[in-house]
Structure formats: structure tokens, C-alpha cells
Sequence to fold (461 residues):
Amino acid sequence: MVGASLAGWNAATTLRREGFDGELTLVGAETEPPYDRPPLSKAFLATGEEAKVALGGVADSEALAITWRLGRRAVRLRLGDRVVDLDDGTEVAFDGLVLTGGAEVRTLPSLPVGNGVHVLRTVADARELRADLDRRNGPVLVVGAGFIGAEVAATCRQAGREVVLVEAAEVPLERAVGTEIGAVCASLHREHGVDVRLGTAVVGRDSSGAVRLDDGTTVDAAVVVVGVGVAPSTRWLEGSGLLLEDGVVCDATGLAAAGVVAAGDIARWPNELFFGDSMRVEHWDNAIDMGAFVARRLLAGTDWDPRAVFAPVPWFWSDQYDRKMQMAGRSTGFDRMEVAGGTLEERRFVALYRRQGRLIAAFGMNRPRHVVQCRSLIARRCPWEEARELAAAWT
Amino acid sequence: MVWRVVVDMDLCESNAVCMAVLPEVFEVRDDDLLYVLNETPPDSDRAKAEEAVARCPKQAITIVEA
Fold:
């Protein structure tokens, strides 16, 4: 297994639970055993408590008989030889390979990391950011108003920091939630006193540390956090024979090649529930779900029923200020959006998205119960009109 | 073997994932709070309860053997 991540951990525990009693080697580029990433931009960033990122069961995993190869990078896959080469010159032979190596954080050439500029992907990144926030007083500049950037902005604002949030797009999160809801998300930050600059890009940084923006202004930030997304960690797989297209391309069951499966941020597969759209899902919940699924898929080998496809309703949450945002499904290609269960102005609502006459996604703000209900509706391909009628009763 | 479902309400943030997995036991109501409807579910719910434990974003649910 390459990738000591949440997906890797769930694949490993599933392999053992399903009775696999062979050798199990788990290679991880980070020196830490698998941990929980969502708190890195929220509770861990706010408190620094290491317990916040502990993943249940990892600390006492002896019974799983995992051979850990942590702090080691896989550098080459020799598919024909069934061997993975590691960066210390050793090799790991395998009968089955699980790819759960996740993604790497993107950076901006105009803002090199270091000297107060941070990214946030790993627990090591989070520790450095926290230490720097403690060390350097003054405004925090967050570049990128995606969910990670938005959470960092909210956490810093709640800690009493001045925050400037810069986003290159005119509306944040447009691809995920559409323009109308994206605008609500931006307003939320303004209401909490964040200086939000949309349609604004970073030009560079002066020697004094001030960040120059393309609207001609500069931001004299003590700490800068770049949150402009991630890219799947597939460089080491180039030339291996696996198909790579913004991720490891798998079939609808998570199989990338005979005896090779992938799960989590690194995996791309056609989700039959969403019209067969090719998907790569970076959510916490998908890492758990797909990690477990592909472990069973790998063990079954040629006995697997090809009709048993991985077709989940993606789901994620984001906590910002006193708002809980959750999304079920995928809004890609939606042709209509309607608000139920409240209003945008109240900041308490569910936005429903339609595609081809079906409910395909729901984004909720402080509406956990209804987002979960929508998730079930999406899973059973609920017709739009039926979903609307059900939602009309949500007051 | 008797077992119980225990939710740490200080950790719970009402994400309602558990409700999707096992609605007979977990219910998030309109007040956005989680209610445990049955602390001692039947053994037939055990696998679902374990899934709820694994899928809770806050790791707020535990199964206690009693």
C-alpha cells in the first residue's frame, strides 16, 4: 500500500477485517502514521492540541500486523515485475497494490513558501503555521477562498486576527456550489469582519514582506496562507503503464490495473450514479468509503461481480464561524437551483440542484438533518419534483 | 454480549452522518441536536453502528461492551 492516509488506513483495516492474513506493507511519505486532516484548518489550528488529529485505532494497531515504511517515498512502480521502488533504494514486492497517496498542495510562483508564507496540507504544515501565527502579530492574508482558505480565514478571525481573504475568481466556490451560493459564502466572511477581495490575484511580494495584488494595492501581512488547492500525487507513477489523467484512472470498481486499486484523493473513476461522470473526490468521507471498498475489490480479484460498482453520493462538511456547511452530491452540470428549508438571508437553508430531472446535489448551511435526507434522495435517484415537494415541508 | 452506543456530546457537531447510517438509533432534529433513540440496539444493528463510529467526522461515537 502506498499512502499512509485516511484512505490507506481504512483500506488496511478492511483488508484485515475481511480476512487477508498475508504481509501488509504501508508506505507513507510523511513521518507520521495516518491522522485526521479536517481539524488542521479548524480545531487544531485554533488550539494546537495534537489529540485533535489522532485517528481512532492507529495508536494501537499492532494486531493489524502492518509493516510501516514511514518517511519514505515511492519513486517508481514496475508493474510487470510487481515491485515498488522506494527513495532509500529498497524495493517492495507485491501481489496486490493499493494506491492511497493522496494529493500534494499547490503553491503559487508569486508567493514562495517560507518567511511567513505557508501552505496547509499536512500536520507538519499546520504546526509551522500555528507557531508562526503565535510569533508574528498583525494581519493574516489568506490567498484562495476555497474551503480550506475559508476555514483558515474563519479560524484566524475568531482568534481575533485581522484577516484579508483574496480570491482570483469573481465568486468563490463557484464550481462546487454555483454563483449564488458562492456569493453567500463570501458574504459570511464579510459579516465577520474579513476584508474579502474577489477577482483579485497576487502579483508578488516585496522585500519588506508586503504582498502586491493586481488591483494595485498591497497587503502588509504578518502571515500569509496559500490555499489554492491540491494536485494528485501521481508523478512517481508516470511511465508505469497506469493511465493518469488528473489522478489514477480506475474503472467503476476502483481497479486501475489487474491487482492494482486506488482510493481517496488520488483516484479517478466513473461514478454511475452521476451519469457516469469521471470523478476525483477530495473529501474525508470518500477516503473512508472508497478505501474500504477497493480493499474488498482487491481481495476479490477476478471473482468480483462487475455490476458492483463504486457509486457513492459524495459528502463533505465545512465549519466556519457558527455556520455548518455541508454538501451532498455533485452540482456539476446543474440546470436549476432552488432554496428550501430557510432563506439565504438567514444563512440557514438548503440549496437543491437539478440535472436531467433529478436531484443531484444539496448544499446546506446549518441544515445537517436535511442535507442527510437529500443524500438519501440523491442515492435513490429521486426525481426533482418529488424532492421539491419533500423539501417544501422543511421549515 | 451486551453493547451500548455512547456519544460524546462535547465532541458531537451534529453532522448527522450517523443518522444516515442508522436512523433507528441516531436522530438529528430540527434543533440541530443529536438524539440517541436507543442506546442498546439489537445485535442486528451492530455492523451499522460500527459504520457510524467510523464515519463520524468528529469521532464522537463509541461502542462500549458492557
User: Anything to note?
Assistant: Chain B has one domain: 3-65. The longest strand of chain B covers residues 3-7. Residues 6 and 65 of chain B are 10 Å apart (CA to CA). Strands of chain B lie at 3-7, 26-28, 34-36, 61-65.
